[in-house]
Design a protein that fits this description.
Radius of gyration: 20 Å
Order of helices and strands: HH
Distance between the termini: 14 Å
Mean pLDDT: 93
Number of strands: 0
Structural class: mainly alpha
Shape: elongated
Length: 89
């Protein structure tokens, strides 16, 4: 039987890579907030100006930005979940 686990110290630069990934996750969350604010403004202008196309684009932007934030926030948990599922196969 072979038992291999991830090695967090096996290669040089692993800690720097973790730092970079954390920074990219932070940037993704910040951009999701920005997209949410802009989309909500567009949705408001579309609704207030009786422009259903613009309002629809704003609604879509709100949903997409919320989905992106969910994915950014849950990325580590999702990967760990599927890692554990894969270990059970």
């Amino acid at each position: 039987m072979i038992d291999i686990d991830p090695n967090g110290t096996g290669l040089p630069g692993i800690e720097q890579l973790r730092t970079i990934v954390g920074a990219v996750m932070t940037i993704g969350l910040i951009l999701s907030v920005l997209a949410l604010i802009i989309s909500a403004i567009i949705w408001g202008f579309g609704s207030n100006g009786s422009n259903p196309h613009l309002a629809s684009r704003g609604k879509t932007g709100v949903l997409v930005s919320c989905g992106a934030a969910i994915i950014c926030g849950a990325a580590v948990t999702l990967v760990n979940f599927f890692w554990n599922v894969g270990q059970g196969v």
